## 1
Amino acid sequence: MTSRLLQVTVDCRDPHRLARFWAAVLDYTVIEDKGDQVEIASWEPTVEAVRQQPMPSTVMFIRVPEGKITKNRLHLEVIPFDASQADEVDRLIALGANRVDLGQGDQSWVVMADPEGNEFCVLRSIAP
């Protein structure tokens, strides 16, 4: 018996804002909007699809009253596949992300934060 990773959940102040940001980053769409909970995905989860094979996880944004206080213990990593890392970083900044210095030093990845301060990394590009 095994399980499948179906969803990553992000606590936030403004689920609609973060859903729009991450949908633009990942080329996902909103698949469910319950006001205080917004889910984005690249596919429509069904029992049959989940049983058939592993699929990309959906991302759920849930409104919570408290703000982010410290560095994330879990973060997302994105990889540009059709642009350079620098071009992707510029695109993400235009969408509302910021570069973040967590003391990582000179690395091959770029640490960024989404509009609510959740850290994520942009890995080096795999563009041809």
Note: The chain has a mean pLDDT of 94.
## 2
Amino acid sequence: MRRILSIDIDPRSTVPPYEQIRAGVATRAADGSLPAGTRLPTVRDLATRLGVAANTVAKAYRELEHAGLVETRGRHGTFVTARAAGVSREAQQLAARYATDSRDLGVDPRQALALVRAALGLDPQD
């Protein structure tokens, strides 16, 4: 079994490899391991790393895109959607704005995260 992005490909499984990839990405997006906006590896890169044909990964990505779980932005790549992550687009945009504004203010990323944790009432260690 080979692992990449916590996706297991079992060549002996009766489940086709493209479906194993599709399910792996969908599961990781749903559990938060692949947050909304995460850029997925290119088809060629993931195929090479998993030891499968590029068409196998392309089919998995097409299935994910058809389901609205990823979106392909041309030459920019393929990204996990807010829908896949169970997050509203507005929440994703708000997080992106906060990251940009914090960076523009020169706030250290760790400090920016600590501020969010405090604002949400979370333990600093969470």
Note: The helical segments are 17-30, 43-50, 54-66, 82-85, 89-105, 109-119.
